[in-house]
Amino acid sequence: MTGPVLVTGAAGLIGTVLRGGLPERGWAVRSLDVVPVPEPRPGEEHLVADTTDLLALTEASRGAAAVVHLAGIATESTWPAIAHTNIDGTYCALEAARRAGVGRVVLASSNHATGYTPRPDGGLLREADAPPRPDTYYGVSKVTMEALGSLYADRYGLDVVCLRIGSAFPEPTTTRHLSTWLSPGDTVRLVDAALRAPSPGFAVVWGASANTRAWWDLTAARALGYEPADDAESYAEALIAAHGEPDLADPVHARVGGEFTTADYDSEHFDA
Ligand code: 15L
């Protein structure tokens, strides 16, 4: 693949991690966000555009080797905000890639596409055993993202890799994160694998580190070439001392989406 990787939502948490990590793995980065990216790196292209602006996104996609689509609201919000920013935005990312002749799109899906899925009674949960079961309007936007990705793979032959990201934070801060954490280093490793995997077609994989307490099966992600290097367990002692042992019967630990499945995450508690 030649050309830069277009990263949408490049000024966000994951975008910032990728802007640092992808060049170390040989990728040129073309950053795009609704706000200017802070401190562009040497050689980094940087654009300001809204991902719901199809024409701007099509221009931004020209000559790119691939698109990594991160832009969007990263938590629950109102339906109009989610529908516009996340659902229209994902349509535009895929349609722009198609119009610009970009062959591969990596989509930042989320565990919340399947949030109400219960923890299996022992063993690891495969993506195939976690069909759409969103926990929020945000989760619905991620289900739609995966559906749009499937459509563009089948109808237009794009390679589309959907990453059902767990908890992508600098470090785990809750006992749920002991199972769901995706470290910054592993975020780069996972996206790099999704960009390099030979002809993945349409794929949906969990995005998590090699956590000792994991209950999401990483076999499909590893099949793309992902080799996670981090484990949240090194934070376990401190987190358990602060918050207590995880109660596996509590919805926060008993369902994929954790606290997003609780009443606190009803859309009425969120502003646009
Ligand atoms: C997500 O999809 C969110 O963007 C992030 O803020 C976290 O809530 C994460 O999931 C998670 O499940 O921990």
Topology overview:
Blueprint: E1 5-8, H1 13-24, E2 29-33, E3 45-48, H2 54-61, E4 66-69, H3 79-100, E5 104-110, H4 137-156, E6 159-165, H5 177-180, H6 184-196, E7 202-207, H7 219-223, H8 236-243, H9 251-254
The structure holds D-galactaro-1,5-lactone.
D-galactaro-1,5-lactone (15L) binds at residues 74-75, 110-112, 165-167, 180, 258.
Description:
It comes from Blastococcus aurantiacus. Keywords: NAD, Oxidoreductase. There is one protein chain. The termini are far apart. This protein has a 7-stranded parallel beta sheet, sandwiched between helices. It has 9 helices and 7 strands; from the N terminus they run E-H-E-E-H-E-H-E-H-E-H-H-E-H-H-H. It has helices at residues 13-24, 54-61, 79-100, 137-156, 177-180, 184-196, 219-223, 236-243, 251-254; strands spanning 5-8, 29-33, 45-48, 66-69, 104-110, 159-165, 202-207. D-galactaro-1,5-lactone (15L) binds at residues 74-75, 110-112, 165-167, 180, 258. Residues 74-75, 110-112, 165-167, 180, 258 line the site of D-galactaro-1,5-lactone (15L).
